[in-house]
Every structure is written in structure tokens, then in C-alpha cells.
From TrEMBL:
Protein name, per record: DNA-binding response regulator
Residue stretches making up the OmpR/PhoB-type domain: 130-228
Organism per entry: Brevibacillus fluminis
GO-annotated biological processes: regulation of DNA-templated transcription
Pfam families from the UniProt entry: Response_reg, Trans_reg_C
Amino acid sequence: MTSLEGKGRILLVEDEQNFARYLQLELVNEGYEIDLEHNGTTGLQQALDQPYDLILLDVMLPGLSGTEVCRRIREVKDVPIIMISARSEVPDKVAGLDSGANDYLTKPFAIEELFARIRVNLRKPQSEEVELITMDTLTIEPHSRRVFRDEEEVSLTPREFELLIYLATHPGQALSREQLLSAVWGFDFMGNTNVVDVYIRYLRNKVDSDHPVKLIHTIRGVGYTMRV
């Protein structure tokens, strides 16, 4: 981690000042070093200028929206980003995750859940330990986060990539939606597993749709698996 003391250095970008101060105090008490910004524009500049282990990013911000801030950070950095928002509908979560966020936490939430999600996102992904993953004509390079099908590169969002990695490293296994949420997102979304179906559809369109051999399969009543 970047921070030499404590558990890590976190940038918190939240415009509700009382709530931001509450989160800052709780996180400091938990052992994290916290920098606080209340504006999307200044938050983006801070994120680009300073090294952080993780970023907590509100969606509704003055200056620049949280999704736009996230998108711009993701263009140059791979730091874990957790979005926090009062918006709880699946399309809102998908938009946040598609912008490059690693996780999406809906307000109100228990502080213990935030701590747990931070711990999950600060862990080293298991995919980094694998040099190369192949299945039929699919090739995944975990270190460079690049994906190829029939030697043509496939462009994936960070969340799509993590879901594909998890499926590919558990070939032939029947994986429930709950398992995929826990493994890829870190937590379920208040019991809502629809986001998994949305991302499976995204992956199929990018990885399987133009190829005769389909790799991602639905297991009725259970979830999904990846196999030739």
C-alpha cells in the first residue's frame, strides 16, 4: 500500500459536509489516512496528483459528477474506487460500475459494511497471480488486463474483466449469481442479483456473439458457467 503507516491512504470525495466529516472520523479511527474533497473538480485533481490506495466517490457532486470523475481517473490509474450514492436502481449501479468503479454502495449504509468493502477492494486480486488464461480461442492476460478472441483484442470495462476472470478461473463450475456477486463485487447489492445478468449479457455480446463456439453458459435455476 502507498501509506507507510496504518491501513492505507484513502481519498474521500463527498459534498455533504456533515456526512463527509462523519465518514472521515470513522475511517481515521479505523486506521486509515483520509484526504477529503467536497467537489468533483478538485476531487479529480487530487486523485490524479496524489497516490491513493483507494478512493471513495459520491455520485452526485458539484463541478463534475462522480461517474465522470471515475471515468477520468480510470483513464490513467487502476486505483480501487468505491462509489457511494442514494441512487439504488440497477441502471444507476450499472452506470457507476461501467464508468470504472470497483464497487457501488447505496446510502444509507452501516459503517461496518463500508469497512468490509474497503478491505475487500484493498486485497490483491487473485487474477494477478495467473500469467495467462486460455479457453478455446479466448486468451486473457491478467497482468496487462487484456483480452483476445481469435487473436482480436476485446475491449472490456474493469468490472466486465473481473467477472470474466472469475468465470475463466473456475471452468465448468456452476456459479450462482450470489457467488458471482460476492466474488466479483465483494458484496451483494441489498439482495439484488440482476446486475450479474446485466454483466453476463455484456460479456456475451463482446466475447461470444460473433464466434461459433460459445464459452459462457446459463445453468437454469443456478446461474452461469464457463466452458468449451
